[in-house]
Amino acid sequence: MKLISMVVLGATAAAGFVAARTLLDRPEAPQSIPQPLQQPTAAAHGRLHRARARVADAMAAASTARHDAEQELREDYLRRTGRLAPASPTLPDIREAGDTTGL
Fold first, then answer.
1. pLDDT tens-digit profile of 52-102?
2. Tell me, what DSSP letter sits at residue 84?
């Protein structure tokens, strides 16, 4: 019984994958299917394309955030090891040096 359940589950998953790939490969929902299935198919097509767009946006945002974090960590490391000048060097205060003639 367990073997048959696994085979049916695997076949269902494979059919779902093929159906999703077919819907994603088309720019518009298929029209050559029976009328009762057209509305659910069009809805699934729209959801899949919206999900693909959201995933692409999320991956682009994650890539940008990762790049920014790596850049910040690299600069911090170089600054701490003395290989990079400080981001905003502070000028010495002339009053601390004892020169008050310019005031």
1. 999 999 999 999 999 999 999 999 999 888 887 665 555 555 555 555 555
2. S
Measured CA to CA, the distance from residue 30 to residue 34 in angstroms comes to 10
Contact 73, 80 (CB under 8 A): no
CB 24 within 8 A of CB 47: no
Buried residues in 7-21 as b, exposed as e (16+ CB within 10 A): eeeeeeeeeeeeeee
CB pairs under 8 A, 24+ apart, for 48-55?
48/20, 48/23, 48/24, 49/24, 52/24
Between CA 96 and CA 67 the distance in angstroms is 41
pTM of the model: 0.57
DSSP string computed for 28-78: S--SSS-HHHHHHHHHHHHHHHHHHHHHHHHHHHHHHHHHHHHHHHHHHHH
